[in-house]
Amino acid sequence: MAAPASNLRINGERLWDTLMEMAKIGPGVKGGNRRLTLTDVDKEGRDLFKSWCDAAGCAMAVDTMGNMFARREGTDPSLPPVMVGSHLDTQPTGGKYDGVLGVLSGLEIVRTLNDLGIKTRHPIEVVNWTNEEGSRYAPAMISSGVFAGVYTQDYAYGLKDADDKALGDELKRIGYVGDEEVGTRPLKAFFELHIEQGPILEAEEIDIGVVTHGQGQRWFDVTLTGFESHAGTTPMPRRRDALVGAAKLVQAVNEIALANAPHAVGTCGVLNPYPGSRNVIPGAVSMTIDFRHPIDETLSAMKAAMQKAIDDICADGKLKADVEEVFYYAPVAFNADCVSAVRRAAERLGYSHRDIVSGAGHDACYIARVAPTSMVFCPCVDGISHNEEEEIHPHWATAGAEVLFHAVVETAEIVE
User: Which tens digits make up the pLDDT trace of 14-47?
Assistant: First the structure.
């Protein structure tokens, strides 16, 4: 297949203006965004995206999970499309670029092709996946997971938020239940541009991350149960303090991750002691554990080490434990041809690049189960993400979108 000429570039200023326009919807209190999935502001963002796609001459399809597919037709409509995109939903205190950059860079690819009058054999489709973040409805990446057959639609529809509102009901309420059966749309390949969400590219002054693998993840909900009693009258040796046990488990999680360096990470993001009174010894603590590693065997070994730590802590503190694994997906090795397309694009355009492993979960990790897939990373300031202070420079966005453009268009095959 013919490679795009190195002088083919996207309109970086237009891309940036589009990002800033989308950021006006669901503004946060500190300069970021709060555009939780299936809320009214999510609908507003979806509607704006649809209007831009309509103006670019795309045909919009929506499936029964609310995934949006904006199609620029190829010269051979019978061929499967090359898909590009990410998500528009954000964390409660999210940034302006996480996910959004990937969707709107896909739109910029279509706009640039239109500007230049370039045709491709394969159609190109820009996708917005529903509920990638998982902040309102856990688990994350639920709709790409349904698309890839990891979850059933009934399971996804039944998920409840903190206000006991079901995902399926909210999807219907905002008017984004499409008529296309989820997972039936064929595709030749999928590419996703994303901010790194880590500090490596900026620290090494590298323009582009060529993502070769996605880390596997295991999430656990753990409840440690002891016995609540009076803080002033219960002697230290007689206590069954669940919070002391939880503190030891937090330390154990940290040590397990450090023991599996350099790629392992471990996090306890939530601890809820009960009953939550200053003069009552905590009788129970519910907490979360998040382990990640790009090698599945290592990830399993980390789980085993966690369980041993829990057993030892419970024996020492006279506690009981309830452990539930609430989320797991295996590490992903992205398609070699798609990875090579990204690497060639960076080289063709003269951007510095390095191979990198994604420490975060992305829709691409599920789509890789059903189609050749790869990702492009661009730097973000200080590696900050899932925070309203998330920031990137316009030239980083342009570089990432141009590499994405070349990888996508090369795969979709330019018609001479």
Answer: 999 999 999 999 999 999 999 999 999 999 999 9
Decide: helix, strand or coil at residue 184.
Answer: coil
CB 183 within 8 A of CB 369: no
Nearest by Cα to 217 from 127, 284, 137, 150: 150
Mean pLDDT of 403-407: 98
DSSP track, 251-263 = HHHHHHHHHTTTT
| Tokens at 176, concatenated | 């984004």
The encoded tokens of residue 270 equal: 């939530």
One-letter amino acid at 35 equals R
The Cα 292–Cα 263 span in angstroms is: 8
pLDDT for 2 beyond 80: no
**Integer angstrom CA distances of residue 374 from 37, 222, 335:** 25, 34, 6
| Nearest in space to 313 (alpha carbons), one of 231, 220, 242, 256 | 242
Return the structure tokens found at 243. Answer: 């919070």
Q: Give me the amino acid identity at 393.
A: H
Sign of CA dihedral 86, 92, 97, 100: positive
User: Letter for the amino acid at 144?
Assistant: S
Q: Is the peptide bond before 262 cis (omega within 30 degrees of 0)?
A: yes
User: pTM for the full model?
Assistant: 0.87
Residue 1 is predicted with a pLDDT of 63
User: Which residues are paired to 68 by β-bridges?
Assistant: 62, 128
Nearest to 256 by CA among 267, 244, 242: 267
Buried b / exposed e over 152-164, threshold 16 CB at 10 Å, is ebeebbebebeee
Average pLDDT over residues 351-369: 94
How far, in Å, CA of 389 to CA of 380, rounded? 10
Return the structure tokens found at 393.
């420079």
Q: What are phi and psi of 45, to 5 degrees?
A: -65, -40
**Rg, C-alpha atoms of the chain:** 23
- CA 223 and chain centroid, separation: 27
Structure tokens at 210: 């060529």
Is the separation of the CB atoms in 407 and 374 below 8 Å? yes
